[in-house]
Design a protein that fits this description.
Elements: E1 8-12, H1 17-28, E2 32-37, H2 40-49, E3 54-58, H3 64-78, E4 83-86, H4 95-98, H5 109-136, E5 140-145, H6 158-178, E6 183-190, H7 196-208, H8 217-228, H9 237-247, E7 259-262
Parallel strand pairs: 1-2, 1-4, 2-3, 4-5, 5-6, 6-7
Helix pairs in contact: 1-9, 3-5, 5-6, 7-8
């Protein structure tokens, strides 16, 4: 039996990428998993592929009402909720919606609002929906996926960084409030993972930097990883998923209010 046998988890933004990796790791440790995504069809397909008790749900993770309804569906399906993973987020599909700056005057209101909605309001809505059900179980765990961008100065993506910093701050506040309810709240700050946002950014680098003209976006990303990561390797969804599974387990019974970097040492470079 895995360390999460008998537990029920809800993971947002989990049809693919980091969220799918998290769901796989939770399922491997015995948890029943609800996969929530805007793309309900893909969420259901990912749930079926787990080969364990799992369901797929279609909902906007930034919508408070939709998240409340989704949490109720999870409880109806599995009898309760023990683990909430707020993973939904990321950058947009164009420069404006990504809130890119440098200078900051380039950031549009649309970009700013998109980033806060995608990366902070999703965490707000997910936490608010889950807390009553975790309290009904006598405790549980919330794991919020933030970013090293929320811990560093990021002039190129200030809106995204501000939103992720907000996730870290909210994590601390909720950990203090919910401690007496035996609900632990922690944040994970990934480093460089190959995502749709990175594919977009690498495309911009390919178009604007002569040294990358002949390289594919994926190879550009790997070059950035090699040059900036002391361990020389990219982070994977499974790297994040294994830590989520630990933080949700009894092995982390006294860990709360923490932001944990999974970045291969990238942030150590800032201290040089």
């Amino acid at each position: 039996m895995g360390k999460l046998h008998g537990k029920v988890a809800l993971v947002t933004g989990a049809a693919r990428g980091i969220g799918a990796g998290i769901a796989q790791c939770l399922a491997a440790e015995g948890a029943a998993v609800a996969i929530l995504d805007l793309d309900g069809e893909s969420a259901t397909a990912t749930a079926k592929a787990l080969g364990t008790p799992a369901i797929g749900l279609a909902a906007d993770a930034a919508d408070e009402g939709a998240m409340a309804d989704a949490a109720k569906q999870v409880v109806a399906a599995f009898g309760g909720l023990d683990i909430m993973v707020n993973n939904a987020g990321g950058a947009g599909s164009d420069i404006e919606s990504m809130g890119m700056g440098a200078p900051f005057a380039n950031v549009t209101q649309r970009g700013w609002d998109t980033q806060l909605q995608s990366n902070l309001r999703t965490t707000f809505a997910g936490c608010k929906a889950a807390i009553p059900h975790l309290q009904a179980r006598g405790g549980g765990a919330i794991v919020n996926i933030a970013s090293i961008a929320g811990m560093m100065a990021m002039p190129s993506v200030p809106a995204y960084a501000a939103a992720k910093a907000g996730v870290i701050s909210l994590t601390r506040s909720l950990a203090l409030e919910l401690g007496p309810s035996l609900i632990r709240v922690n944040a994970i700050c990934p480093g460089f993972l190959w995502t749709r946002a990175w594919e977009f950014l690498a495309g911009l680098m390919k178009a604007g930097m002569p040294e990358y003209t002949a390289m594919s976006p994926r190879d550009i990303f790997l070059d950035v990883v090699r040059r900036n990561t002391p361990m020389g390797r990219e982070q994977t969804p499974e790297d994040i998923g294994h830590l989520v599974a630990f933080l949700a387990s009894d092995g982390a019974a006294n860990i709360t209010g923490q932001e944990i970097k999974v970045d291969g040492g990238i942030t150590l470079n800032v201290m040089r």
